Records
---
Amino acid sequence: MSLLEIILIFVLQFEAGIYGEPTFYKIAGHDVILPCATASSSDTTCSSVSWLYSRDLSETFSEVANGKVLQTSPQAARRDLDKRCSLVIYNITAEDAGLYTCRHGTHSDHDSFVHLSVLTISPSPPDADPKRDGNITLECSLLRYSDLPPCEQNSIRWMDETGTVLLGEGVGYKLLGQKNCVSFLSVKRQSGHNRRYTCQFVKENNVEIEADYTPVFTDPSPDQPYIIIGAVVGMVVVLVIIAAVFIKYRKRVKEAKVTEDVQKPIQQPDELESNLTYVTVSHNQQASLEKKVEVEEVTYSAIRLQ
């Protein structure tokens, strides 16, 4: 037997082993318990059990070693073991999808495999304004072990709230098709018409898992115009009050200035006299050339009028 034949037989046996193992279908955000078929019922501490995780054949990560969750794992906070050595995963995310291997002891002879597939629905664009009408695209994805065969065409289907399977194009929707394990549906979001859409993964005519999505339209608040009007009126009232206070303040300033001018201090007599200059005028009158006339002194004074 050639080396190529040995490798081919090994690959076929490996694929038959992992593809024939159970698959758990879950929705993102839920919890799951993955059983370990090779765990011993007498080993209640799970001290000889390890769990391995791989998204594809290229790389494998250790999640649990000797019955203990490895804290080096990025997902350690959402991992746990129960009394049966089953792996418990809380709050499932898309990154949890893949192949899980339970190993008892240090050898891989009795490994058991479990697949975890995660169904997600997300709108595109994800930040679409919920207050505006318009078309959005819903993306339904089945995330799983990437080395599995592709999903069959039409294995992911859409339904409306009445249970009607959506095909082609209809009122408010348009089926954009399926690519591998991802299906796209364009829907129209309208105010007052929050329809519900369901994505299902169907395998051999059996619905393995389904998830609902409702494009939410948020109507503007009916009280919003009144709130705006109230705010404008309130602002006008505040401005009027400020203007009235300012006018009243200026009026008071003017009145105070007039009062100050009227009540200026009146000069006292002593102060007035100190500001006056007295002049003495001598008047000589000569009756004749030979006779002297006495000098008459005249004194002028200032009279203050009350």
---
Amino acid sequence: MITPIFRIFDLEKAKEFYIDYLGFQLDWAHRFEEHMPVYCQVSLHELILHLSEHHGDCSPGSAIRIKMTDLKKYHSALKEKKYTYANPGLEKSPWNTVELTVTDPFFNRITFYEEIL
């Protein structure tokens, strides 16, 4: 299993995006001391992401692709939330996938995709 790490700058903003909007759950969060940067894990079904405020872990502006089933249903659930900072649409790609791309507040991009049979 591969676990991507995304750079974040604000845990509350990350929670608003990943948990409140995308539907992930916060599995755990760790700080070495109270006012130190956070390192945490969020998950959605079998997908696991690590989010880090530590500057040495990764760079902002990363991108990943995540294969999903029932992408139209997930898209509908996102639209119902009326998230202020994003309103992504479904797009058909030339390589026979339907894709939904979202960008987090830290410029990390996630493309959820489903293969067209």
---
Amino acid sequence: MTLRLRKTFLGCAIMAALMGVTSCSSYKSALYMQEAEQFNENPKSQLYDFRIMPKDELIIVVSTTDPEASAPFVRRIGQSKELNNSTYGIQDANLLGYLVDNNGCIDFPVLGMVKVSGMTTRECEAHFRELLKPYLKEVPNVTVNTSNYKFSVLGEVGRPGTYSSENEKMTVFEALALAGDMTLFSVRDNVQLMREDATGKRQIYTLDLTKADIANSPYFYIQQNDVIYVKPTKAKVRSNTFNTNASMWITILSLVTSVSTLVIALTK
């Protein structure tokens, strides 16, 4: 083998090795929850409970064996605040939600202002059962649900937008799945989550979705009104910039060519 062929072979081998390393690196950066084996060896259990916050809208249903007895505590659309249940067809109307104010309270029929912020829905149900005992001959059945649980997913995902869910327990992966998942041009180890707490303070947290221990993060479960932002990779930004610049220069070149052709035609 001549020296020239050896150099050529060596150059090809180096290029192949570099391409392999780059390919492996790109492949690894596209994977979720890596090192799962280490995580499974020492898992940490974490139970998540949805907590009511200001600006939440609650649907509260109070029922007893005697519908007339519980009627004053069930407000429906089209029904007055005083809850005169004699309105025709009111039993079939939709329930009216209770908006939690900035102080964490709702204005509930008969009871007045009741603080609910910070409670889970089950705690809220138990709280209302105790408050309603003096007004009823039996312990009422109370159910509490949220009607405006929503979140937003922005950036390099399949379907950016704002989504709502009836599920009060949703992981960041489930939220991304609803948004069409991340694309191959997404930065998975630097996902940003913006969250507003009960006092109105907003903070941004960074999530590394390539690590399996993300499941132990306090931000693994999203809350109502969370905003998830997925950054694009530098390659995607460069590609878009190149395409934009190329289109601009092609347009300019076409214009210059047209003008030059016109000038040459006029000077003949």
---
Amino acid sequence: MSIPLGDPDRRSFLAARQPEGHVPLSAWPRTNKSMPLVELDTEWVRFSTQNHRTKAEQQREAQQRGQDDLFTSDPLGPPAQEVQFLILSGQSKFDELKEDLLARGQKEPAIVTADGVLINGNRRTAALRTLRREGHQQFGYVRCLVLPADATPEEILVLEAELQVARDFREDYSWINEAMMIEELYELSGRDWDRTAQRMHRKAGDVRMQYEKLLLVHQLVNQSQGTRLPIDFTDNESAFEELAKHIRNKPRDEAESVKKSYFLGILSGANYRQLRHLRCEDAETLVERELLGESALEGVLATARSAESATDDSDPLSDFMGEDGSQESVVEDVLSLVVTRRPEAVVQLPDGSAVPMKSVLGSLSGAVNAAAREAEERNREQNTVDAPFQRADKAFRELERIPSLLGKSRAHSAWDEEAFQNEVDRIAKLVEELRETS
């Protein structure tokens, strides 16, 4: 995490401000937690473009505007700052925040670097700036605590992690943005999960799960060749969590089979609760069978396969590897086609016609759901077969404990041997009935 520095004049200007006093900042990692409190013009302060609460949204804005370096070439310049302002003011509950500020004013100071870059209080400052532009001149200034001039990027990231667990009117982090923060903290913590968890005030298993979910998202985004962004999968958290948990300790073949099936289901909008039934080693086979059996997808499958063949032909390793070097996979071919096209795109078919991507996604969703239902039915049948064995095993383990308990029980004055023998007879009778059941 690198915090962009402003020009020297900004730092000099802020250093020359006469503080109203000093306020302790308990979340600051150093021993000296006393920070100067100053008032700054809401138009003068700069929004942090490194704020993890808006990281995924920034990626989307940069892509939509065709400016990959929008927030990196000049993060404190007018273009980046105005877009960041639009992102902040477009978040949910922003109007409620404005109403709260109108009613109560600013109760908690924001936090800025020595260059006047907001580390905490970005949304509140955006709301104050909006109110001022709407004619409420009393909101022209924001009260801020100023961090030391030598604050490091790691200290600032740790501070953000400390502050993000607080409540107030702060917008909750999306799971994608929170996972991105964890990813960065994990690297800064020397890839130590315990240290990362301590900084996030979470259990190590929780932060690791967020990280593993994000790794799966990264895989899909990388496969999309720039078509998809992490923010596109904000609503799919449960599916990614189930997938991450399932494949964590599975053999590679099974993990890949389930992962590809899940990815295709997520992209096509398959029913989430049905999708979980595809957590089985032959998930890809089940999905492939449904894809091949769906007549509406015949042209799409041909397009997907031809696109994959073209890729293979251009691969300099394909001749060296030979036919055995790659294994055809219908699911993988279709996944490669779908992930690189937006829902509003069209798919060109081999016969020269075209089909809307939304129509393709509908057919794919139906195929994945059908495969999941087949897996569910099979699991139900298997459970029916296994249930008597599971119950018998459970009963046996309970009965197996009885001999070790009898010594103490029989030595007790309240022990009833006749009642116990009656229970033994009941067990023997039940066993006999089980033997006779055909």
